Amino acid sequence: MAHSLNYCLNSGDHYNRTLSADELRAYLAELGDNLADQALLLTLLAGGQRVAQLLRPKVSDYDTGTATLRLWDAKGRTTSPREHLLPLAPRAAALVAHLIARAEAKGSPLLFSTYGQTQLADTTPGKRAAEIGAAVTGEPFDLRDIRRTCETMLASMGISRDTRAQLLSHGLSGVQVSHYDRDAYTDEKRAALMAWESRLHEIATGTARSNVLSMKQRNAT
């Protein structure tokens, strides 16, 4: 197990894998109430966001009226971080509300703080994910694998490539995006995250929510 954990944490070694539904179910079952686990859960519920970005928001970056969390994406060839808005589905919104209550109780402006004013270290959730992976699957995986798993499953649900790119904030470059395409894709991202939470519910419980159509079914109607 120690060998697997070290393998997973070594940035030079990477399986480049996706998790099966059974592996994802086992991963979800291990997530508890500690702050690192809550960060991992929110990352998953939000469609596979980059943990480093998800740890940085302040309480003020969340709009309770629209259940929208604002992140800042500094990746790519940009001189300043790009605003990345996440219109959250109900379970993720409830988790953020819990984190806000925790932050307010500590007098902290941060959603993820260890002692009130200090942000949870970027590396902590990744180490925790690797521990869970080594324990429950017998094969190492890291947060890139979780992110890849989310996108792969979203694609299988019929979420378009453009919506996935907007939701996961990757591949957004070029003249069209930089100067002409100002659409925040709010409706598309919200619909995708609603469908994604339902899919995670199915995976975690082995049951389907009969009142929720898949994106493929919606697109066909």
TrEMBL record:
A Pfam entry, by short name: Phage_integrase
PROSITE patterns linked to this entry: TYR_RECOMBINASE
GO BP term, example: DNA recombination
Molecular function as annotated in GO: DNA binding
Entry annotated with the keyword Transferase: no
Presence of the UniProt keyword Ribonucleoprotein in the record: no
TM segment ranges: none
Keywords assigned: DNA integration, DNA recombination
Occurrences of domain Tyr recombinase (ranges): 14-194
Gene3D superfamilies for the chain: Intergrase catalytic core (1.10.443.10)
Domain of life where this protein originates: Bacteria
Matches recorded under PANTHER family: PROPHAGE INTEGRASE, PROPHAGE INTEGRASE INTS-RELATED
Similarity-based family: Belongs to the 'phage' integrase family.
Protein name per Swiss-Prot or TrEMBL: Integrase family protein
Species of provenance: Accumulibacter regalis
Classification lineage: Bacteria, Pseudomonadati, Pseudomonadota, Betaproteobacteria, Candidatus Accumulibacter
